[in-house]
Fold this sequence. Notes:
Structural class of chain A: mainly alpha
Strand content of chain A: under 5%
Oligomer: homotetramer
Distance between the termini of chain A: 91 Å
CATH topology of the largest domain in chain A: Tetracycline Repressor, domain 2
Amino acid sequence: MSNSSARRTALPRRRDEAKALFRNAILDAAEHVFAKQGFHGARIQDIADHARIAVGTVYNHFEQKEDVLHALLEVRLEQMIGSLQPHPTDPEPFDQKLRCCVVRTLQFVDEHRDFHQVALDCGLFAKGTASASSILKEKAVEHFEKLRATTFALVNEGITCGALRQMDPVPLARMLGGLIRASSIGMVMEQSHPNLEAEASLLVDLYLNGAGRAAQPERPRDETILENDDAS
Amino acid sequence: MSNSSARRTALPRRRDEAKALFRNAILDAAEHVFAKQGFHGARIQDIADHARIAVGTVYNHFEQKEDVLHALLEVRLEQMIGSLQPHPTDPEPFDQKLRCCVVRTLQFVDEHRDFHQVALDCGLFAKGTASASSILKEKAVEHFEKLRATTFALVNEGITCGALRQMDPVPLARMLGGLIRASSIGMVMEQSHPNLEAEASLLVDLYLNGAGRAAQPERPRDETILENDDAS
Amino acid sequence: MSNSSARRTALPRRRDEAKALFRNAILDAAEHVFAKQGFHGARIQDIADHARIAVGTVYNHFEQKEDVLHALLEVRLEQMIGSLQPHPTDPEPFDQKLRCCVVRTLQFVDEHRDFHQVALDCGLFAKGTASASSILKEKAVEHFEKLRATTFALVNEGITCGALRQMDPVPLARMLGGLIRASSIGMVMEQSHPNLEAEASLLVDLYLNGAGRAAQPERPRDETILENDDAS
Amino acid sequence: MSNSSARRTALPRRRDEAKALFRNAILDAAEHVFAKQGFHGARIQDIADHARIAVGTVYNHFEQKEDVLHALLEVRLEQMIGSLQPHPTDPEPFDQKLRCCVVRTLQFVDEHRDFHQVALDCGLFAKGTASASSILKEKAVEHFEKLRATTFALVNEGITCGALRQMDPVPLARMLGGLIRASSIGMVMEQSHPNLEAEASLLVDLYLNGAGRAAQPERPRDETILENDDAS
DNA sequence: CATGAATGAGCTTTCATTCAT
DNA sequence: AATGAATGAAAGCTCATTCAT
Lengths: 232, 232, 232, 232
């Protein structure tokens, strides 16, 4: 009796494990193949080959090719949002906290270049509504919105605590997003592995203080600046 | 004889006009169709239909589908770069000049949303080297580089004239690009027609002075700000 | 020992029961699904779902999809032939006996519309030899032949007893088959539930007396009919 | 001028000819392949091969595989209906006229065995409404109805002119259809080329006078009958 | 040079069948 | 023996490109 009941739960348990195993294998393979060949250039066969399974198996786990992409982006995006959100262990002053978030996010991008490649290819960070042309269609808006909301919350916190300007948070959030995207693209494009801490510091510094000459709080290199001033 | 020689020069002229006429019609149609359906979703047939010509005619002007895209992007990108570059008539103080450039660029984006849609779809502003997956392949780098060079020159001028921080111009240029891209995406995505002047002013202000509370030159509200002012 | 030997015989019996249970469940499900979706439109999965068993179980009872169809048709066809054959209890005069056979057959069709749908779909009553295109291939001839033989025997009896014309029984049998098929198709197609007795009477009357005006036994209208009446 | 206008009409004319040429080649090939392999067993590739054209060309003329079938059946059915309908040159007495119609129809079947094979395979003469399972879906009803209407008109004429019983024409038409179908199936199945005239005469005779012994108006073969009577 | 039908490689998806549990 | 996921061959359909007119 315990035997039979054990079977009833043991078998499904094994099956579920196996199922998850296959599903993840497919997603990993897809991430790699999509990044290398782009969504359109990737054939289901390629993904299956990479995952060392049969084509049909892919279709046992996902209804269509697009769904593989959606599932992939969903999982990773959730992780990325987790990186961007403030953690309880982050230091309190807002600029420090923001720096931590940015460091984590750039780390995530650095560690998931394939995902980023794919996300860019699909316009995950760019197209949203105008998505008749997007592979992601309606889902793109959803995904994009999630990310935007996270940035928005972060910026709002900054405004509330007085660390950011008292102004419409929408452009502030858009700007922060633009900077992070710029850094991410730089990393993925140039295939460089920069000092992430430094990159994040620079980004946050520029975001908070601007690129203008007046903004340089630390070590003003007087002579150079003066010379330049004269020259101008 | 003079007749025949006249023909020899007159005819080619007409032909060239006609040729250009077709070529432009194709590019215009392609811009629209690519924007609506994406590069992969657009069939040559669709483009031909839109240009009210035959499919074969497209192939009389372009070797392959990709070439239509390249030609399209090349033309528009040249225009866009023209917008981003300082004009002789732009006012001198760097911040004013920068503002003019940004206004022109945003205007260009606003007037060429279809192009922007396409450019985003193809990763023109995003993928560059990592372009096995890109439709643009090698050309993407070329295109991207041109744009980057323009931004770079602008930023360098800013540094030289002392309006921008004395620092590595690469991240500065990347940042400026990120901000402009963020604004552009916002416009295309939300299909809004914002006050471009205001948007540009905001962008330049944020770029030069940052989003930090200290950066607010106008309306100081309390001591903290004053303290910060002192510190700077 | 007697225990064990009892087992040896008792167990197989249960097993056989269970086996038959599954087999019949599969055939019933198949009948329904084939009728609704056609042989090609029916997936093994659909049949299994309908029988509330697993796909694999179907393959424990039948080698391949076609075999399910064959088994189904075989069983039902045997029943149908049983309906068409004269029963010992049928009344003697040939026309009465024929009427009984036809009534039974139409009843069978009425009660097994799904089977009929399937049989028609597979060309059971129609294609026979020319069966490269048939799903039933060689078996079709076999099946068709059985049915034809039964009709043939019936017609032969009619000829022998003098109720039917003294002529080549082959076209006579073919004709009877054609009439029954016509009625059957009418029933299945129009999804009507006609008065089977009346339908059978009409069929037999037309078969025996023809559709010609002279053939009307009731309400004689003029001499011609009377003459014929006399002749009979 | 006349040249250019000639071109405008000459080119399309040629094209239309070519178009019809291809279309017919496809339909002929399809008829053959469908008959040999059945609709489901026939691949578009097979049809294209048989027509010595490319797969894509089939799709330039028909939207889907099914449409090829529909077009094929439509054309042939129209012809078949033409055969079944009375011609102006047919002799007047109804039985003679009917015989002419049946002869023509059997001739048509004889000459278009492939079509008949296909029609049977698709349930053109059998399934109609119950067509969830049919390849023809809704169109089947339409086709079937056309044929039925023709038979119906023929029977109605017979009733009106007094050659057929004064009764509900529906079963009369159904019966006539059943007989013709039976003969057709016999021909296609047995691949025999019978004397069509004789077959038609037999069919009409049986239809009008029935199979009953009393129905034999001509040449009673007395001895045989008596012998058989004795034997029974 | 415009035209538009022909071409056929290529890809997604389906589903009968197998097999490990 | 039941189960249901894995398998992979097979087929319909698309569409970039070619080419005869």
